[in-house]
Amino acid sequence: MSSPFRAGFRDCLPFVLIVVPFSTLFGVVARDAGLDILQVMAMSVIVVAGASQFTALSLLQDGAPVFVALLAALAVNLRMAMYSAALVPHLGGAPLGMRALAAYFMVDQSFAVAVRHYEDSPQMTGAEKLRYYFGCITAICPLWYACSFAGALMGRAIPASLSLDFAVPVCFIALLAPLLRSAPHLVAALVSGLATVALAGLPWNLGLPLAALAAMIAGAQSELHLARRAARRAACPA
């Protein structure tokens, strides 16, 4: 009964190497930004999303208005809505309480690993998929809380020369690369990278949500184009 849970836990274990420095860095940066330990932990427990937490902290440190920081964090976290939509075919039949718990603990790592496993194992039942998913988040989320707390306690004791911020790009590269399986995926990734660089000069990191929007539009249009071309070929076979 517990084997899907153990499999999910095992499959997400490699991300421990990323989550530990990533969450520790958040605790350190948050303390450096002026938050006390209670505020650091409240942010980690309530938001549970490292990228948006770093975005909000960066904007607040730059003197951006609070509503701008919240808006940017929300824009970064909009990917969770897409994650949720992708999980509906797999976990949509679970009880409401379980779905709410799964939504709260959703992180990039658990989503990416779970969705790929579901696609590779279509014979799994809904209950097995749910246990697998909770195995994934058990390997990630407790460490996020614990290491955020440890980073907040250490504060400025970690020297800048360690450059723990390497964990942020490495984590997202590891998550993104295996999911680039089609032309629309590649188009969206290319547009997002180019737009991010082109819009890097905008104040308050506004280039990030704009680049994400451009990437989604480009990916969707690319998928529509391929679907129309396939329909034309089906209607006019050679």
TrEMBL record:
InterPro entries to which the protein is assigned, alphabetical: Brnchd-chn_aa_trnsp_permease
Domain of life: Bacteria
Subcellular location, record wording: Cell membrane
Mode of membrane association: Multi-pass membrane protein
Transmembrane feature ranges: 12-31, 37-60, 67-88, 130-154, 160-179, 186-204
Main subcellular location of this protein, as a coarse class: membrane
Pfam families: AzlC (PF03591)
GO cellular component: plasma membrane
Example of a GO biological process term: L-valine transmembrane transport
UniProt keywords, alphabetically: Cell membrane, Membrane, Plasmid, Transmembrane, Transmembrane helix, Transport
Protein family: Belongs to the AzlC family.
Protein name per the record: AzlC family protein
Source organism of this protein record: Limimaricola hongkongensis DSM 17492
